[in-house]
Amino acid sequence: YEVSARQGVDLNPLDVASEQDQERLRSYIWPDQPERQERVAAAIAIAEKTPPKLDRMDAADWVEEKLLGIEGQVSVLIHSIAFQYFPGASQDRIIRHMEKTGAVAAPSAPLAWLRYEIDPEYDNRATLRLRLWPEGQELVLAVGDPHCRSIEWLG
Fold first, then answer.
1. Predicted confidence (pLDDT) per residue in 34-47, tens digit
2. Under 8 Å CB-to-CB from 99, ≥6 apart: which residues?
3. Helices 88-103 and 59-66 meet at what angle, rounded to 10?
4. What gap in Å lies between CA 46 and CA 56, rounded to an integer?
């Protein structure tokens, strides 16, 4: 499979090419967590080589505007430890849009929603969930902690 396009959204996106923004990202990690520092350094190096396209807007507005079924492609919404920070109205709009778009998805233009978020059904651990349309099937793929220090893949 080939990724034909990727883009993201943030109310205040950081510029991965900016040393100041890189330092800001590193400042969010506790000094006694060298493995997380290493992961962030590796992620920054990857992003510097292929900078992501980030739109400055609200997540719900972005999902409604950008996430549409495209013939011959799988459209995928991915988020990780972010949804809980969105206002309730934005969460509701995203869920409604995914349901509406999923309802008209076709085998030739499928839709996927991959999310790693805190999950009350799993004692507030994070779960990696995948929902696929046109069937609407949802799978819990893994359970772990929010910082991905441990992941338990489910069978």
1. 999 999 999 999 99
2. none
3. 10
4. 21
Other C-beta atoms closer than 10 Å to the C-beta of 128 total: 21
With H, G, I as helix, E, B as strand and everything else as coil, classify residue 93: helix
Alpha carbons 36 and 149: distance in angstroms, whole number: 9
Tokens linked to 5: 């396009």
Residue pair 26/38 in contact (Cβ under 8 Å)? The answer is no
Provide the pLDDT for residue 52: 86
Cα(110)–Cα(134) distance, integer angstroms: 6
Going by their DSSP bridges, the two strands 151-153 and 137-144 should be labelled as: antiparallel
Which distant-in-sequence residues (6+ apart) come within 8 Å of 18 by Cβ? none
Length of the chain: 155
This prediction's pTM: 0.88
